[in-house]
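Model it.
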Amino acid sequence: MSRKSTVYLVDDDDAVRDSLSVLFGVEGLTVRSFASGQALLDDLPRLGSGCVVTDVHMAGMSGLQLLRRLRAHGVTLPVILITGRSDATLTAGAKAAGATVLIEKPFGPREIVSAVRQALTENAAAGAG
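Modeled.
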């Protein structure tokens, strides 16, 4: 009895969030979107299997801070960080915090969908949640 995996999408930019939601939906993926990291954290009791895709640079809580808070709450879902600007410090911080992958904008649809599918597959194989 496998549960349907969900992509938990977190981005404070409505246009990016809407675009990625449509892309993932067209690819047959179940998506739940959140306008902030805190909105996702508020929904923790209802999270199932899947993965998190979050922007790094957001108002309030950054994607890296969200990743750290998820881990502190014992959430082991794979986390894909997306960013418009990356450097060695961010890359090292993302890796140390346990990010599955850091993807730089602009990225193509195949790149993000492939990363999400790989994260979902790895999460299902691990039985994590």
